[in-house]
């Protein structure tokens, strides 16, 4: 049962606290004291289509804490992959990706070759078009915050772990919420990864896990067919519960053409609650 998603065939812009108790039960969480998270989602052809929802999500998490060392009692962290703006270099794929481990308290991994920051095209290395040797990638993806996007190489799966900022990964943490911007999610909600069921293919899935490995919440990312579209999906719990996030971005690892057989998806801004020490 998917209480948290909505099909998007054009512009979708929703900022809601969606009841998801039945979906949580289907995932094996039958605790009588389960409190559903607030869900924020939007999709459309331009950055303006999702801007209001992203801003509402930011407000729900709290003020930005930039690179300040933790632990801090409240607020949020953001990663936009842009290096302060104006950076058009394509980084070599690495895993684990620890660029923001100490400053933002997040570590990213992939079962593939590695994770890379790149503009759709241009820069010394040619951006995504050069990284994947596919010239079409320079035209079919757009950014929410210019200039760079984030992508796994050799896989379509990215995982995030959280730590207290300033500890260089020495102190595991949990967060109240996690949200991400995606570009070019073409396939609408329905059957897809994570053994979800439905009548249409869906390409992008976000799964949130607790410190004990229990699946807390999962949902498809909203779609907006058409090249260069942008989508946002985020949740906020009433307390810091999320220790790990798994993102399935697209139904295939980047490389092939984005067509009727493949929905290739890239990621942009990650926004999450201030990492809190484990109880």
Question: What do these coordinates show?
Answer:
The protein has a six-stranded antiparallel β-sheet with strand order 1-2-12-9-14-3, covered by helices on one side. The chain has a five-stranded antiparallel β-sheet with strand order 4-7-13-10-11. It has a two-stranded antiparallel sheet with strand order 5-6. Strand 10 (205-209) and strand 11 form a beta hairpin. The protein has helices at 21-26, 47-61, 101-104, 127-131, 137-140, and strands at residues 12-16, 38-44, 76-79, 106-109, 114-118, 149-153, 157-162, 173-174, 177-183, 205-209, 215-220, 230-236, 244-248, 266-273, 276-277. It is built from five helices and 15 strands. With 279 residues, the protein is α+β, with helices and mostly antiparallel strands. 12% of the residues lie in helices and 28% in strands.
